[in-house]
Amino acid sequence: MKNIAIIGAGPSGIAAIKNISEKGFSVTCFERCAGVGGNWRFNDPSGHSSVFETTHIISSKFTSHYEDFPFPSGTPDYPSHQQLLKYFNDYADNFDIKKYINFGTEVTKCNYCEDGSWEIEWRSLDSNEIRKTKFDALVVCNGHHHIPRYPDYPGKFTGEYLHSHDYKSAAPFKDKDVLVVGGGNSACDVAVETSRVSKSTSISWRRGYHLIPKFLFGYTSDIFAKKSRWLPKFIRLPFQKFMLEMVQGKNEDIGLPKVNNHVLATHPTVNSDLYNSVRHGKVKPYGDILKFDGRKVYFKDGTNREFDVVIACTGFKISHKFFDKDLIDFESGPVKLLHKMIPSHLKNLYFIGLFQPLGCIWPGAELQSKLAAKHLSGEWEPSDEINKLIERELQNLDVKQIDTPRHTITVDDFSFRKRLKKELRQSMRV
Q1: Do the Cβ atoms of 181 and 310 come closer than 8 Å?
Q2: What secondary structure, in 3-state letters, does 222-275 show?
Q3: pLDDT band at 158 (very low <50, low <70, confident <90, very high)
Q4: Structural domain count of the chain
């Protein structure tokens, strides 16, 4: 019987545990938190979670559930982090997978052995005891929200300077002048929330972002988008941009930077509140930052202003501290993994959930887990050499996006799931 190590018991990890253990493998999962849920464990003592007090999912419940475990009746269209954490715990309990998880353990080193096995070094957070165990295969499910990425501006800001990973609630920013940097989902949420208590809140965008409301014409925005997928991209993308501008207006009309790209050129920012906050004068928009000088921030349009706090909502590095960089390094350039899962240069290694979908991540991670389980059991094999298939994937991206580190792992969730399901059907004929 093969012994399989799984790192992480978040939404991707619990799907991996369930599907791999069902194939009869011996599974050991290492999880530094005190329970399942990973990033959705608000204020976990480990400090891992980056969700904050008011976080809700940005994809709807209709597209954000495991195939074999739907949300319970009565779940709102956009569940809160508390409801999601309960959902993940219910999933783990329903399939009896917590027995495979070593909570309060941190993987410190993963060494690749000549025979294709993996030596895992890990420590107990309680005793600080370090141990080593050898496994036949390694499945990495801990995502990439670990090492904050800060913007690189000239000068130094001498006020309070923090990353969105460390933001938990708006209360500490009462009566302060706050600048939020970024145009993604976290940035817009933080700007809206701090504006309710701050003396002032401003937001800085280096480029224009499409703001997608959570509801369009009575539908959740992901279901509305799904209804237009029959259109070819060259029609669908301009149509979606037109619909957004018709519903809520143009960015430049309210002082936000103009959007020069199609709707999916960056990761979707799903937010129904920022437009209202800007139009109500609660959030003041600025363009890109030129430099810091003490508490003063200079912007590229020639304006400047003093702030008490700068909150950088600028994403995370794609990094795994337990791998030597000469073995695995995804911080720059394309992530070369077949189905965002299997490397070509190492055996018995799988990444589950190391992708950024244009929707929800765990339905795709669930399908990856099923495919990894079939690969481990010999029920599925790639149709060609892995390196050739990877290059083919990189040449045929789901959607062309701007060239930034964050967008190296983007997939269109509908297309991605379709490909994985096709591979799973193929496995039935192996």
Answers
A1: yes
A2: HHHHHHCCCCCHHHHHHHHHHHHHHHHCCHHHHCCCCCCCCCCCCCCEECCCHH
A3: very high
A4: 2
What's residue 403's pLDDT?
A: 65
- The residue with tokens 């801990």 is 142
Name residue, tokens 């995804």: 330
- Measured N-to-C along each axis, helices 362-376 and 11-21 cross at an angle, to the nearest 10 degrees, of 30
Task: For residue 142, give the 3-state DSSP assignment.
Answer: coil
Judgement on whether residues 295 and 155 belong to the same structural domain of the protein: yes
Task: Give the CATH number, domain containing residue 141.
Answer: 3.50.50.60
CA distance 74 to 163: 35
Phi/psi region, residue 148 (left: phi>0; alpha: psi -120 to 50; beta: rest), is: beta
Same domain? For 75 and 88 the reply is yes
E-strand stretches of 335-390: 349-351, 356-357
Range of the domain at 60: 3-147+316-427
Q: Which region, left, alpha or beta, applies to residue 135 given φ > 0 means left and ψ of -120 to 50 means alpha?
A: beta
Residue 244 shares a structural domain with residue 373: no
Measured in Å, how far apart are the chain's first and last C-alpha atoms?
A: 21
Q: What percent of the chain has pLDDT over 70?
A: 97
**pTM of the full predicted structure?**
0.92
Cβ pair 151, 187 in contact under 8 A: no
Tell me the pLDDT tens digit for each residue of 312-359: 999 888 888 999 988 988 887 788 999 999 999 999 999 999 988 888
Nearest residue to 65 (alpha-carbon basis) of 422, 351, 359: 359
The pair of three-digit structure tokens given for residue 308, joined into one six-digit string: 């008490």
Rounded to the nearest 10 degrees, how much is the dihedral formed by the CA atoms of 266, 272, 276, 282? -80
Give the pLDDT score at 334.
80
State the Cα–Cα distance between residues 93 and 113, nearest whole angstrom: 34
Out of 312, 342, 365, a domain closes at 312
- The alpha carbons of the chain give a radius of gyration, in whole angstroms, of 22
What percent of the chain stands above pLDDT 90?
65
SS3 311: strand
Residues 291 and 364 in one domain: no
Are 84 and 99 in the same domain?
Answer: yes
Residues 14 and 127 in one domain: yes
